Amino acid sequence: MRELVADVLIVGAGMGGFPAALAAATLGSSVILSEEADWLGGEVSNQGVPFDDHQYVETVPGSASYANFRQRLRDYYRRNYPMTAASRDDPHLNPGMGFVSGLCVEPRVCHDVMTEMLSPHLASGRIRLLMHHRVVGALMDRDTVKSVRFKDAESGTEVLVAAKVVLDATDLGEVLEAAKVEHVIGAESQDDTGEKHALPGPPNPLDQQAITWVFAIDWSPKTENVIERPGTYDRWRNYRPKFPWPGPLFDYRDGFIGHLQPLISAGEPRPQGLGTGAQVSTTERYRPFLAGAMSDAVVTDWWHYRRCVYSEHFAHGAFSSDVTLMNTVQHSYWELPLLGVDDATRERALREAQELSLSFLYWLQTEAPRHDKGQGYPEVRLRDDVFGTQHGLAKQVYIREGRRILPVFRITESHFSAEDRPETEHYADSVGIGSYRIELHPSTAARAYISLAAHPFEIALGALLPVRVNNLIAAGKTMGTTHIANGAYRLHPTEWSVGVAAGALAAFCEKKKLQPKQVREVAKLLEEFQSILRRNFKVPLRWPVYEARRGPLPHPTPPTPWWKA
Predict the structure, then answer these.
(1) How many alpha carbons fall within 13 Å on the CB side of residue 334?
(2) Does the predicted TM-score (pTM) go above 0.85?
(3) Whether 103 contacts 74, CB under 8 Å
């Protein structure tokens, strides 16, 4: 077994782990960064999920490194692609012109840009990168993680990594499980959290948000594109959700209220698994594959929503078609959870999630109602080369929630929900900011969508620190939110900001020979650390509008999004 040593070990090179590594290395710590998959980037690369940023991200990006990442993505296209002059000169270039975000890019480009950002640290030896390494164990010395054991998927050998500070930046909380760090999975109870929308009665660890296997498509009318009919197609074609839903799963109608409106009024009976006041859809939303002819009209149909290549940005003939990433509720899987179950059940869930996505694609190609009144879109081609996988789908399934630490300070919906308070709660130990609605996808406990208005919020340092273990820091979705609060804190820019804070904290503690909890407990240390975040990483600890007038909205006005121009 190989043995490696570093000041800081960061497990998971996604949207939390990657910026954590940059932050720790920038402050002078030696870092080992591990990743189980093929690419850096997690959600935005291996899982194929375009940025889902808040609307102020162009003016309030959360950190210098996130702004730098976004700028590098745009510059990557300007340097390497045959762009039109107008598109190249657009300061707010959106390569895909997807509706979901002002910056929709190809998954591979995220990996390439992250590799570029990491290169000087790799060359100097400050960061050592272990790709295709999976956590298989951990060694504890009472309340300290001494080392983490990995298995190299390529060679089959095991590697033991010892570090002074360990960060869990995995989507499922792999280190938490291996090191037996106190954590929760699934949904807490109202009696525990006091949240309006938590579960009444006992908690349910198996109430976990749906997973989704994303895939890429383009438009190719001159080729044979229809995939082989999946063996489980009839099951999914006839599937009807067990919670309020307007019809079969494979349909343009769904029960997602998204950012629109509450749909259950006071006094109405609530579906299974919902607390008092939960907002759940019982009405229809209609979102077709194409709203009309293949045009550049700004619409929220599936084709335009997560488009990652807009062919008109590039020289004539450079692209024969746009490219779109499919991530819809119609192929989200909520039959079985991934956590709290045996390996066989987990593998079954992943397999069935793949089958669901392929069945949805087959339905789209053969039976989906067309914009021109026909049936099926045989012109739709699976772009299996986008991810380079045998099944044609993303390299990894999209995971919305995993294990969450039992923290020193737990963030609940009542800290920032617009239903509960006129403005977000301010934290003396703030280490960053984020913004998103509280949005939970359908769950494995037959719970429908929850979508709640929320104030832009702060990231409390105490939510990154486990109650018992001294040298472990949560660096992403593993942070100490509740099941409900996770619905807002899980989004890309917030996860990045959590990573910056966790990586900087690890380096700060390593240099000063401190435990992370001491930084929060000693006022002078906390003030010094927050000063480093502001000075070295341009991290705002308060939303600018709160500094000015302590009110909820509006916020600083960003450049007009392209879809509203």
Answers:
(1) 28
(2) yes
(3) yes
